[in-house]
């Protein structure tokens, strides 16, 4: 009976949720992408040109600051999300969500450096 209880406790511990992992790949030439988070707007996540950045976001959301206003992006724990920063019309950048395969193939074809890690250790919302 005691071994059954220990087995159940180990099983419950293995189900603990890990943070969401959000990947950003910057394919623009000569332009960095800057993401300000609500936890520390003075310390931005910088995705430099031809770089891959992985952000670990605790909880279920990540607050992004745009024009001094915070918008919360919701993510499921234990999942990974993939975004590519690319050029749009003029000098503007766009971010597009991609599948893991598209993201990895794009990173490989461009000989991208990374991933650089950003760990956000407080719950945003």
Give me the number of helical elements: 2
Write the H/E string, N to C.
HEEEEEEEEHE
What does the radius of gyration come to? 18 Å
- Numbering strands along the chain, what is their spatial order in the largest sheet? 8-7-1-4-9
Q: Low-confidence parts, pLDDT < 50 over ≥5 residues?
A: 4-14
Characterize the biggest β-sheet. Answer: 5 strands, mixed
* Class computed from helices, strands and strand pairing: alpha/beta
Distance between the termini: 41 Å
Estimate the strand proportion.
35-45%
User: How many beta-strand segments?
Assistant: 9
From the spread of the alpha carbons, the general shape counts as: globular
| Mean pLDDT level | 81
Amount of helix: 10-25%
Overview of this structure, please?
With 125 residues, the chain is α/β, with parallel strands linked by helices. It is 18% helix and 42% strand. The strands form three sheets. A five-stranded mixed sheet has the order 8-7-1-4-9. The longest helix has 13 residues, at 2-14. The protein is globular and about 35 Å long. Residues 4-14 have low confidence and may be disordered.
């Amino acid at each position: 009976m005691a071994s059954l209880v220990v087995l159940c406790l180990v099983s419950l511990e293995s189900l603990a949720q890990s943070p969401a992992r959000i990947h950003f790949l910057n394919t623009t030439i000569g332009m960095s992408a800057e993401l300000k988070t609500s936890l520390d707007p003075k310390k931005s996540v910088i995705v430099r040109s031809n770089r891959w950045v992985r952000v670990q976001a605790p909880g279920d959301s990540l607050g992004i600051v745009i024009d001094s206003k915070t918008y919360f992006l919701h993510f499921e724990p234990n999942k990974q999300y993939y975004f590519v920063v690319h050029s749009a019309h003029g000098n503007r950048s766009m971010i597009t969500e991609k599948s893991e395969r598209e993201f990895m193939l794009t990173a490989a074809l461009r000989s991208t450096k990374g991933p650089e890690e950003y760990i956000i250790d407080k719950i945003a919302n």
